[in-house]
Design a protein that fits this description.
7 helices; 9 strands; Spore Coat Polysaccharide Biosynthesis Protein SpsA, Chain A; about 250 residues
């Protein structure tokens, strides 16, 4: 069973295209779990208009004044992931478009790899923008402490075992996809697919997807140290509570 987990907030403009590109690739027993962070536009109406039993909509109400954009998004994705029942989990943004063969290509590798991540192409005005360099070049796996990690949730799918170890998210987690990627790397094998399987839409409401982060260097270093600390803490807790070890 496949679970596609999506976080939404005021995504009425593009979400219909995205859901159409996803649902056409899923089987009858698969599911799309959507967590909405109190949208004020027609996002919910668009979702309900599909009238598809595979879609389940949940509502997340959080104090937006106490959380920045990245923390709110991580919390919204966590809410969706907590409801997922599938053996294989796909992450989805609300405004992209999946390639017609995305699920099939990633499922070729998911039974053997803890996490699979594809490349992507940028899209503007509903057309791929081939003038922009691909986000992922050869491999997304780098020294997380030193260089910019290239984990993009919209490109990722992973096994249930990764999800079980990644939840619950550490407090004040600014990068849910980076966290899941780190858990996957320490859990088992990872696979990078060079073929672009996602059209990443560029528009004025994008939170991520820039080639370079504008966060201060001190923030980047502190946040990565905190991620490593949380990972070691989670590994130690898991090994104490379970007979099975953290890795396969």
């Amino acid at each position: 069973m496949i679970s596609v987990c999506m976080a939404t907030y005021n995504g009425e403009k593009y979400i219909e295209q995205q859901l159409e590109s996803i649902l056409s690739q899923l089987g009858k027993s698969d599911e799309v779990i959507i967590s909405d962070d109190a949208s004020t536009d027609n996002t919910l109406s668009v979702i309900r208009s599909f009238d598809d039993d595979r879609i389940t909509l949940y509502h997340l109400h959080q104090d937006k004044h106490k959380l920045n954009k990245h923390l709110r998004i991580s919390s919204n994705f966590e809410n969706a992931l907590q409801k997922a029942k599938g053996d294989y989990i796909f992450l989805s943004d609300q405004d992209d478009i999946w390639a017609a063969n995305k699920v099939a290509e990633m499922m070729k590798f998911l039974p053997s790899y803890a996490l699979v991540v594809s490349n992507l192409v940028y899209m503007e005005d509903n057309l791929p923008d081939l003038s922009r360099k691909p986000v992922l070049k050869k491999s997304p796996y780098h020294n997380f402490l030193i260089t910019q990690p290239q984990y993009y949730g919209c490109c990722m799918a992973f096994q249930r075992t990764v999800l079980d170890k990644a939840l619950p998210f550490p407090k004040k987690l600014p990068s849910h996809d980076g966290w899941i990627g780190m858990v996957a790397e320490t859990t088992g094998k990872v696979k990078f697919i060079e073929q672009p399987l996602v059209c990443y839409r560029i528009h004025d409401r994008n939170v991520s997807g820039k080639n370079k982060s504008d966060n201060p260097l001190c923030y980047k270093f502190t946040y990565r140290i905190r991620m490593y600390f949380n990972l070691l803490k989670r590994m130690n807790k898991y090994n104490k509570m379970n007979k099975n070890t953290w890795t396969k």
